[in-house]
Design goal:
The complex is a heterodimer of chains A (374) and B (932).
Chain A: H1 2-20, H2 22-32, H3 34-42, E1 52-56, H4 61-68, E2 79-80, H5 86-91, E3 97-101, H6 105-110, E4 116-122, H7 126-149, E5 160-166, H8 173-203, H9 206-212, H10 217-247, H11 256-280, H12 284-300, H13 313-319, H14 323-335, H15 341-368, H16 370-373
Parallel strand pairs in A: 1-2, 1-3
Antiparallel strand pairs in A: 3-4
Chain B: H1 4-14, E1 18-29, E2 32-43, E3 47-51, H2 58-66, E4 73-78, E5 81-82, H3 86-92, E6 96-99, H4 113-123, H5 130-141, H6 157-169, E7 175-179, H7 187-203, E8 208-213, E9 224-229, E10 232-237, H8 239-246, H9 251-258, H10 261-264, E11 282-293, E12 296-307, E13 311-315, H11 322-329, E14 337-342, E15 345-346, H12 351-356, E16 358-361, H13 373-383, H14 388-401, H15 417-429, E17 435-439, H16 447-464, E18 467-472, H17 475-478, E19 483-488, E20 491-496, H18 498-505, H19 510-524, H20 526-529, H21 539-550, H22 556-576, H23 579-599, E21 607-613, H24 618-628, E22 634-636, H25 643-651, E23 657-661, H26 665-670, E24 676-682, H27 686-705, E25 721-727, H28 735-765, H29 769-773, H30 778-806, H31 816-838, H32 844-862, H33 874-882, H34 884-898, H35 902-926
Parallel strand pairs in B: 3-8, 3-9, 6-7, 7-8, 13-18, 13-19, 16-17, 17-18, 21-22, 21-23
Antiparallel strand pairs in B: 1-2, 1-4, 4-5, 9-10, 11-12, 11-14, 14-15, 19-20, 23-24
Helix pairs in contact in B: 4-5, 4-6, 4-22, 5-21, 7-21, 8-9, 13-14, 13-15, 18-19, 22-30, 23-28, 23-30, 28-30, 28-31, 28-32, 28-34, 30-31, 31-34, 31-35, 32-33, 34-35
The chains are: A alpha/beta (374), B alpha/beta (932).
Chain lengths: 374, 932
Amino acid sequence: MTSLLNIFWLGIKEIRSLISDKVMLLFVIYAFTMAVYIQATGTSNEVNNASIAFVDEDNSALSKELINAFYPPRFQAPKKIDARETEDAMDKGLFMFVVGIPPQFEDDLRAGRNPEIQINIDATAMQQAGIGTTYIKSIVNKRISNYLKRTDEQDSGPVQLIIRKLFNPNGTASWFLSVVAIINQISLLTIVLTGAAVIREREHGTLEHLLVMPLTAFEIAMAKVWANGLVILLATATSLFLVVQMALKVPFAGSHLLWFLGVILYLFFATALGIFLGTISRSMAQFALLNILVVLVLMLLSGGSTPVESQPGWLQNITFFLPSRHFVSFSQVIIYRGGGFSAVWRQFLMVGAIGLVFFVYSLSLFRKSIAVTK
Amino acid sequence: MVELSALKRSQAEFVGKPVVSIQDVTHRYGKVLALDGISLDVPSGLMVGIIGPDGVGKSTLMALIAGSKKIQQGKVTVLNGDMADGAHRRDACPRIAYMPQGLGKNLYLELSVYDNVDFMAQLFGLSPAERPVRITELLNATGLGPFADRPAGKLSGGMKQKVGLCGALVHEPDLLILDEPTTGVDPLSRRQFWTLIDDIRAGRPGMSVLISTAYMDEAQKWDWIVAMDAGKVLATGTPAELMKRTGTKDLEACFIGLLPEEKRSGHTELVIPPRAAGKSEIVIDAKGLTRRFGSFTAVDHVSLSIECGEIFGFLGSNGCGKSTTMKMLTGLLPPTEGTATLFGSSVEAGSIEVRKKLGYMTQAFSLYGELTVRQNLVLDALLYHIPSKKADARIKELVEKFGLGPHLDSLADSLPMGLRQRLSLAVAVLHEPKILILDEPTSGVDPVARDSFWELLVDLSRKQGVTIFITTHFMNEGMRCDRISLMNAGKVLACDAPQKLIEARGAPNLEDAFIGCMEDAVADDASGAQNKDKAPGRAPAAAVQHAASKASAPSGFRLRLGRMFAYARNETMQILRDPVRLVFSFVGSALLMLVFGFGITTDIEHVRYASFDLDQSPESRAYLEQFAGSPRYFARTAPVRSAEEGLRRLQADDVSVVIEIPPNFGRDFRRGNAPEVLAQVDAAMTFRGETVAQYVQAVNNTMLQNPANGLQVSPPKDTATFEERYMYNPTFESVYSIVPSIPALLLVLIPAILMAVSIVREKELGSMINFYVTPTGKLEYLLGKQLPYIAIAMLNFFILAAMALVIFGVPVKGSFLLLTFTTLLYVTATTGIGMLISSFTTSQVAAVFVTAILTITPTIQFSGLLQPVSTLMGKARLIGSIWPTTYYMHSSVGAYTKGLSPGLMVQDIVFLACCIPIFWAVSMLGLRKQEK
């Protein structure tokens, strides 16, 4: 009971300190509103404004028709270049795609042959190259059949493949990116807030003062966990409702309660990590350097930037112990796919278990760290 | 450097004239008034002391005189010139030596003693031939000779001050400015320090010395005194004059006498009633307490027993082990050997119970500055679980007694030192502890506040029977304790009532008694101490003469180059001895290379799929077989048996695509009825969903053209076929595009952060003063700092290139030599970005985060890492086209994958080369040669 009270009062003090730190507070607000919005809408894997050029060796009415089929916003207005310029222009990075239309192209088609179009793709632009190529192919074939048959109908093949995209039928990138942005902000700011709270207390000598009082290291650490966790939880909720659901209109398929339960488990891990980093670094500056390394790893390998399946097998085995990976995973299950507890309990267990192990470890370091201060 | 003859002449001119003349100088920090319209003439050739407690403006005044701070208002004339005039400062600074406040504040703690002094010598342009001679002489004269190779961070406070002094004297100054050189230094070192100064003055009689101190008794022997309080000069004159004017016998009493009436009000001579005689219970008992940190023994077999109600003092210098002993007594630190008991029970065992009887006040006053006075007190009451009624009464009582009433709702940070100290004591005694442990509670507090603080202590001890354990480095505070123990280098030298200690040694006062004890200890310890400077003799004077006769005048350009290399060498040594930054610069970039290289990949492979075959005909099986036949892209899992199962497995991320074949697929296919196949794709992650959908389509398309599976049909009429040429990356694996772009990102992130931190760190730790007060130019400073980081970044580049080749199998196809050259330009530009950021950030933390955010965002978004620059529009295009990474990215990706011809890299090289001088110019504008 007294222990709970201590944790409560220390946590209140923690929140008061944070509120008086206006710069940090503004940064938290910015990170969970503006920054999430910008990240969700700013980048996209979509092909947009792609630079394209044509080498037209046919110079027929059809080839002109094809060139006119490419227009903004998906493609820039096509440029016509000479075959000899192709290599050089691609080397300079002027165009992502150079499409070559062979001589007698229209004649061959009218004769019932299937002439070959060459697409030169700058394959160093990975994300857009693959999808862009598919677009080019489909636009070209559609335009050809349109031109030759004067109709919009396309020949259906022997099998009609219907592809249905579940959970995000229109493939709106901001649905996914906005949630990943929140997850990244949670990782970054929880660690910064908690770690900075530990270091500030140590640098001001108030930590020693607390340790001389009838308080245990557990109570001091736990107060930081709940206070900083609560602040981030509130920010997360605000961000989810205001930015993700209201501004970006992302539907939330599953249970809010279940997701927030998962967030709380993750916060437990992230605050413990903050305490750990705050304990092992001897100054704010060291903490900041360490933080950058740790947070980048947490973010990049979580499966939020690129899919976990794409990591090599051995790396997947390592990232299995990264709670951020499970966080991204169960967030997708709950938010988009509407999965229930039965679909996410494994991820919950993993996040909780790693959080607990880390917390116990940080706690044991925390007490020892007093020796380091002097 | 001024030529010797000219120097002599100018000296002759101003003898008798004031060396420093100050007119109406006012200085503010925000709203705080540090100096309030001061006017002062300091006579030359004398030893002049500025006395007064902390925070009265002494340090500000000295920094203004030294030219390290920018004058806000008024006129400061030093050595016959206006210090607001940059040209005069440049000429005068080689004749002024300035040692800022704080033990070793302007030293580089990672560097050795020798290197520290050598660095200053290089900045003042001493030739390589005269430097070793001069430095060795100075070090020997100050007794630092045997410690030349020891890092400055591992020296005691007194020794650090001597290193600072050597650094200040390495060029022969006409004006020596020492800001609180002896605060926190043990009495023996203090005495040695003053002897040293006297000897130096004997060797250079024309030299003026300006010293500030918080120990007023020190100033008694000086020629001329300036007493300061609250930004104003109270009085000037010889010590004898001042004491005569106030009718006092010592300077501290004299100072109190000089204070304005309202400050003195309520101040009475402190009287400490004697303790009631007779033995009482022993409450603190320590036996053989020892604490070692590695090979260093901080506390060496300390034994103490303190009685109930006693005021027990612990006297010693900074770093002598006082605080460590306290931490062991309070249970903060476990002793390596020995035991400590409070009230008969061990601190560790009875932890919580014992701690309730303990009050503790740390050196830093340990208050929550962001909470108000009331909140600080209430928090403490809550944490000790004092019932709220009792707590209210107690807080009220304390607030009244400690005079905190008017400030109840102000933030603790906004209180003046004296009040904070009282608040801190109130917090410590709120729960009515039986023992009060105070760690240097009075440092930095003016004498009047100190006396009233002591009145509170006396009241606690004599009236309430609280045992008080107090550490201090003020001798006169030691005199007020019932018993004191003198501590030095981890050992207790003597322990008794102060008067008895003085009598036992037959010394005139406590300080002499202490010095006597220390000298005995040193003599006992003779083995390692034969080099201690018993008598510095005339060596420094000789050293001064020696160097002066050699003073030569090398050309300006060589001097500049020398200073630049001095900074470069200094920075290199620092970073080599700072494990965290070293790890960050090398291991950090290698680690991030691995994480980015393996972690960021757009290759979608091994997509888990399940079939849902409602037909089970040879055709349906042949159709599904096609997916199993492309193992790089698709991985088969158990088929699903119902639509619900399929959905459930998609939800749980068990499969990413379910392929549903309708009933009668085989029959319809044979009849040419074009049966429908439904592929349900998980598109929660949009990019992946899109790609998987394309794969499914592609498998469907290829199988219809493949004669092997019996599903082949002739290509439809009116379609073209396509030949796709994936240029630069024929296998279309993301590793070939990601790996060459990572160095572009890492070589801006890490060098920029390190560069920004290295400059901001100097600002934060105080060694920036060396730049302010030496003739070092801005460009020399910046380039000197930049060189080591360019070298580090280039090493990083080679490491990253080796990793790309060995670990990722991505070789450089183009000219490696040309890429190396482009990299050199690039990292010079990126360290320039760090330099630029350092000019507007003031803390290392801000420098790290601001640099990270400012470099990562444009690099990822606008430089072609994710989106080709050719597809950017509007502002994004604009940012992309001025951000250096865009150009390096082009060269790097080009050299790795495209085998770009040199001609195509010229544009990048030209742009990068143009960036460099721009960053230098802007950084020079942003860098200040004086503190604000």
